[in-house]
Amino acid sequence: MVEQITIRKPDGGKYKALVVDDSAFTLKQITQILMSADIEVVGNAPNGETAIRMYKELYPNVDFVTLDITMPDVDGLHVLKEIMSFDPNAKVIMVTALGREDIVKTAIMNGAKGFILKPLDRLKVLERIKAILGA
Amino acid sequence: MRIEYINPFVEATFEVLSEILKEGNLRRGELFLKRSPTPNYGVSIIIGLTGPASGRVLLDMPPNTAKKLISAISGDEVKDLNDIGKSALGEIANMIVGNAITKLYKKGFTFALTPPTVITGNDYTIDTPQIETLVVPVIFGEDKLEINIALKEA
Ligand SMILES: [Mg+2]
Predict the structure, then answer these.
(1) In CATH, what number is assigned to the domain containing residue B107?
(2) How far are the Cα atoms of A62, B25, B101, B137 from residue A42, in angstroms, in the given order?
(3) Which of B33, B36, B106, B153 is the most buried (most CB within 10 A)?
(4) Complex ipTM above 0.85?
(5) Which domains does chain A have, with CATH numbers?
(6) B-interface mutation test, from A25, A73, A124, most B Cβ less than 10 A away
(7) Cβ neighbours of residue B90 under 8 Å, at least 6 residues apart?
(8) pTM, to two decimals
């Protein structure tokens, strides 16, 4: 049986998320995890450049971003800085691999609200996101 | 190749695979040397490394083991070696090598990695540089994968 977790805004509305990852597998996996909690995924970006462009296009109709750190060319830290300078209130959640939590410190100093770890565990991810959003 | 480079890869493989497979009974086989990091078992994931030494890490396994890993990491959503399955294998290699270079960084060696390339029996086009390669077998249940580490001092 799959445990049901729903993450809604205080006013009952659906959260809107932008998912960023250069791995097609992880992009799909995070999207499915978020959708299972009734979160609307308004964008999927397979690289950093697309992520920055999509955030600007979607704004203000996007509530948070899950952002992969390890991506070729424009990496997650670079995307984070661009998004934060465009929207200082952006809620960005970094996605990093087990054992690489160190890398997150720099992201937190640059405005990231928290992080989730790969390999992704659906319940852990949703509990984490729920806590970060204060939902 | 410096011996300090080897252990972080082995430890990272154990940590990441234990997390994905949700089991602790992995064990390490006998190390051996070969002349170049060549694939042997049908499914290989290659990640390039640059830093104080450069070269590549190749994870080599039979298709059945690859499918088992894909199935475990996807919560049984994906079972095949299709594009999304290969992408899952690439992520597993990213996690292992990413974890290993973090351990190396803590020892004072700063490496950078390239995105993973996944090759299967049908699309073997890999140039194999002649770099002395250390092979570490990792055994779990009926499955075995081999970590090929080929690094040359810069
Ligand atoms: Mg990535």
Answers:
(1) 3.40.1550.10
(2) 7, 41, 34, 43
(3) B36
(4) yes
(5) 16-127 (3.40.50.2300)
(6) A25
(7) A23, A25, B45, B115, B116, B117, B118
(8) 0.93
